[in-house]
Amino acid sequence: MYLRRHSKNVDAEEYGYWSLVESVRTARGPRQRIVATIGKLPGLDNEERVGWEEISRILTGQSKPQGSLFKKAEDPPYWATVDISRVSVERLRSFGDVYLALLLWHHLGFTDFCKEQMPEGKEAVPWSVMACLLSVARFCAPSSELQIAESWYGKTALDDLLGVPDDSVNDDRLYRALDAILPHKDALCRHLQDRYGELFGESFDFLLYDITSTYFEGTALGNPQAQRGYSRDNRPDCPQVCIGLVTSREGLPLAFEVFDGNRADVTTTEEMVLVMENKYGKANRIWVMDRGMVSEENIGFMKERGAKYIVGTPKAMLRKFEQELLSKEWEEVHSGVEVKLCACPGGGDETFVLCRSEGRKDKETAILNRFVDRLEAGLNKLKEQADQGKLRDRQKAERRIGRLLERNSRTASLFDVTVTETALGKHRRLSVKISKNEERYQWALRSGGNYILRTNWKEVDPKTIWKRYIQLTDVEDSFRTEKHDLGMRPIYHRKQDRTQAHILVCFLSLAMWRTLQQWMKASGLGTAPRKLIEEMRELRSLDVVLPARDKTIRLRVVSTRQKS
Q1: Is the distance from CB of 160 to CB of 166 less than 8 angstroms?
Q2: N or C: which end of the chain has fewer CB within 10 A?
């Protein structure tokens, strides 16, 4: 791809303009195709260099010449006499963050993938370019399609970098780009797995799976998947969809599925396992899942398919390991965390790992005591009212007890409450008897901070099993990134296909985010991409206007950060 100069005569005066040209292979040999007509570029007709060759280099993915990030290779000096009193700066726009996003998009192979899978037709702007624009915007400054078109795009250097003029970007074209990219979802996921292997040597022997939800404003009647269900955002009043995400053990996103908002987590496991096996095969896959994703039916299903797993177990299973809780054969795997290998109850080919965390125990104990105190205070107040004769309606008393137990469900099983009614002359009097099950309470204190892992993996070191399981925190971190840094909530998307396409764009942006995070970690730059993006945003594209003696020179340059 290169810049070509054209000229034509208009009223006996020569007029010059430039176009961006791409060489393409055809059945009849190489041909040149005009990608974009740029117009007149002041200064480029002479010997000045204004930085447009940098745009062509970025688009073609050519390597950067030696030197600083935005410094051009040394050119022969060109001198001009300039009126410094009239020097000005125009078109100050964001450059660094969008440049970084395009670099990530290119290195993940999305540029070539979209060109192959979304060939150009009669559209004014190729859909492959619009898909890139949507993902870059989501990565740099999450907002609605209308906000991108009306405000954000014109304040960035993307019109130079992508060759798409500002007036060609509108909300209608952005929404239609969502329709164009959604059919390629599965192919994009397969492409990502191949690319991760090339960039990071990822083997995908461990697959981490978890699920989250995101809610809509309004009724979302145009989306049959939008249903009310268990909300991770504490918005049970709003319809939502559930999103299942599969990542590698390094937290690199591999695939996702969108489920109905009222779908129980445990019912998605079999479907997700089948999806991943159909796409990537099932050899050497070890699934890591939290206890909310697992049931005995799911365990049986995975055993039948020969799948390996490391999963959490329900809290009730701790009763089977009560004696192991009291023993002293623990190994420290982390500061404040201990593990031990336990035999499978009743025999079998599974391995159980008992884990305990001092920090988690302190937290659970504090929560337990807070609920106990609150429930006990509420029940005692109700008992006092009954003893004083202020509470005479038995049904009303039982409803109040039911509400108290519901609000404090964590500790409801620790108390037995009975309401009796006795005749007192013409009136009836209620009495409330409260008994606290001390044995259950002590067990709750003793088992606090303890949990069990279950696996059919042949690994015998409990520390290794625990470390693999605890990597589920990377999936949770991915959900936080999508919700808070990438603005995943579909505020302006009502139809099912548009919602799924919007989540796909967020998924692609998450892949860019995680890739940047891996590079930062390897380079010793920390693990906070948002901070780096904010610093890169300080790099601006600008036109320096230099009034010379016989003409005006316009230089398009990129600023650099001032060294402290």
Answers
A1: no
A2: C
Q: Which residues contact 500 (CB under 8 A, 6 or more apart)?
A: 182, 185, 258
Give me the count of residues in the chain.
564
* Closest residue by Cα to residue 154 from 173, 133, 175: 133
Strands 308-312 and 286-289 come out as: parallel
Q: Are residues 113 and 175 in the same domain?
A: yes
Q: Which domain does 381 fall in, by range?
A: 361-447
Question: Under a CB-based contact definition with an 8 Å cutoff, are residues 344 and 452 in contact?
Answer: no
Angstrom distance (rounded) from CA 228 to CA 208 = 26
Residue 333 backbone phi and psi in degrees, to 5: -105, -20
CB atoms within 10 A of CB 487: 17
Task: Check if the beta carbon of residue 4 is closer than 8 Å to that of residue 12.
Answer: no
**503: Cα separation from own chain's centroid:** 9
Instruction: Tell me the CA distances in angstroms from 284 to 203, 249, 462, 493, one per residue in order.
Output: 9, 14, 20, 39
In tens, the pLDDT along 39-98 reads 555 544 443 333 444 444 444 445 444 434 444 555 677 778 888 889 898 889 999 999
Q: Cα–Cα distance between 356 and 362 in angstroms, integer?
A: 11
CB 140 within 8 A of CB 96: no
CA–CA dist 279, 507 (Å, integer): 17
Number of domains in the chain: 3
CB 128 within 8 A of CB 115: yes
pTM higher than the cut 0.85: no
Answer yes or no: do 211 and 273 share one domain.
Answer: yes
Nearest to 81 by CA among 551, 564, 539, 478: 551
Catalogue the long-range contacts made by 10-16 (C-beta closer than 8 Å, 24 or more residues apart): 15/40, 16/40, 16/45
Question: Is residue 208 domain-shared with residue 146, that is, in the same domain?
Answer: no
pLDDT tens digits, residue range 152-185? 999 999 998 998 999 999 999 999 999 999 999 9
d(C-alpha 96, C-alpha 413), whole Å: 58
Would you say 97 and 513 are in contact if contact means Cβ atoms under 8 Å apart?
A: no
Handedness of CA 3, 28, 60, 183 (dihedral sign): positive
Answer whether 419's CB lies under 8 Å from 432's CB.
yes
Same domain assignment for residues 487 and 499: no
Dist CA 145 CA 287 (whole Å):
37
